[in-house]
Predict the 3D structure of the following.
Amino acid sequence: MPSRKVVIGDVAAAAGVSPTTVSHALSGRRAVSDETRRRVLQVVDELGYRSSIIAQSLRNQQTNSVAFLVVDISNPYYPTVAQSVHDGLADEGYVSLIGITYGEPATEEAMLQNIVRRNVDGVIFQPMSLSPQDVRRIVGTLPLVLITDHEGELHADQVQTNDAQGIAEAVRHLGDRGFTDVGFIGGPDGRSPGTVRLASFRAAAHALGLTVADDWIEHVPFTRDGGREAGLRLLALPSRPRAIVCANDVIAVGLFDAAHMLGLDIPDDVAVVGFDDIEVASMLKPRLTTVCNPARDVGAACVEAVLSRIDSGPDAPYTVSSLPTVLVPREST
Amino acid sequence: MPSRKVVIGDVAAAAGVSPTTVSHALSGRRAVSDETRRRVLQVVDELGYRSSIIAQSLRNQQTNSVAFLVVDISNPYYPTVAQSVHDGLADEGYVSLIGITYGEPATEEAMLQNIVRRNVDGVIFQPMSLSPQDVRRIVGTLPLVLITDHEGELHADQVQTNDAQGIAEAVRHLGDRGFTDVGFIGGPDGRSPGTVRLASFRAAAHALGLTVADDWIEHVPFTRDGGREAGLRLLALPSRPRAIVCANDVIAVGLFDAAHMLGLDIPDDVAVVGFDDIEVASMLKPRLTTVCNPARDVGAACVEAVLSRIDSGPDAPYTVSSLPTVLVPREST
DNA sequence: GTGAAAGCGCTAACAG
DNA sequence: CTGTTAGCGCTTTCAC
């Protein structure tokens, strides 16, 4: 049982060289004679020496870690993004610090402060309550990638999806299939990304001359429960929409629940369109027509953005990468 | 635009005190006069000073971080565990380092080495390829919680679920409903947790005198594709089982796909039981009868185990917490 | 109640 | 090709 943790000095002593030489034998940043390297490596192995990344971080001012702060991972969309981020970072030798904010302003701020104090090399953050300015103020010049559809002056590199495009396609698809009365179940009022999706929906419906009664628009949390409750209200209306677009797939699942409870058939009594194309979409019966939100690509874009920002430094102009969304027609319409 | 990162010395200089006093004014570990504290706090605020957790970690030999290493998060079971772990750790002021190993021995080893070098305060690890001894050898005396049903000598605190219990209940349930011919779609051969679940299935079926033909047992990956392929083979058999137990819900989804492709009705042509009770289970049509695997409780148990190990030190006896699983009967049987 | 000095473990000048 | 020295930013003795 080795008593104390073995440090670089122990290796140096045992190999009869200086700590500097041990360091260089391991990092290769300075030439070391073959004989010396061999001896050092052997001692390292015998003693089971593992260099302290903490000490290296303090010295080098970089931690090889990136924080990934996300609103929620109970929605299956996010684990996919997280996985893609994790894998992309791991490939480049970075470790992922993950934080779930639940969209709480206090939590968002506290987690950002904490990860700044941890000297992470970069941050990938999906803001819900904090504005881009707020976030930038907190993280200073740290490489920062925001997952948001925020418009206006840029305060960070941004990754977003072109939701309007997919929604427009979905509405057109409904029109093509002869649905003229359409409703929408959106996220919490005034919050991204629900707002953009609702606005796109209204615009597309208007352009096609479809009917959207005022009480055919619902605002609920992005949850199955939310979808069910909104669905029960919408489907009980004396004059109800014949097709409903949901701001995400999880809401659509709730709407399926509601239709089932009311004995209504999908798509004969009411057609349903989702958003995200999470795995579940193709498990439902009927399979859910939905707009594919490319989770893996979003993750990859975030990684690319944060890594190139780490490379380029804080002065390069901010970039925004906007990923396409596309309709996946299935049997719920 | 503040040029350089502000450090404790800057605060000390501006407040006209020593770094020692600043440190104590902030940590409260030593008495500081009210007047001094007030001045220090004000300067901290003006300068936007944030102490470096990296430097503190090096000095204090603790990082307030815990690593969570898991096989895969594309199976929806794991995000739930991860969330529970994250929340539990965050409550106690710990940050989560998450790693996805994909069950690769090399990745498992590399990630463990890396997080040891990062001086995490504890590790929660779901081993797939490495044995508990191997893991213990790698992490030394670090607090370690293993998510595994491994039997035999303990090398770490362990969290496991009583899968046998739930499976037995499921088989009994099938017997009660009059199914006498039963099959099983399990995970990869010889790997946990598939092995335990299969063994429990065999034992329970045998005890009840149910028929289990040799070719009614399939070994596939824990994926939807795996379930579909096994399902297609099983359901095409000249003499096929009337009920099939799946080693997890994702496999069951694949089996649903297969039944659908073959025009077979669930449960009239074939009954299906899953394992885990992930959210999707109740979204399928018919809703899936399954064994509830308490993901949140597993996460909470891991957090509790790792925290109390951090408290108690390496010499306290290892604990194992075994969580119950229970059948959730729905319409697929 | 406060400060000076040492040191956590490592790497990069600088010097030979 | 190798070693000595200093210092990353912090906390904690030890001393007053």
Observations:
- Residues 7-9, 19-20, 23-24, 27, 29-30, 51-52, 54-60 of chain A lie near DNA strand C (CB under 10 Å from a C1').
- Chain A has a mean pLDDT of 96.
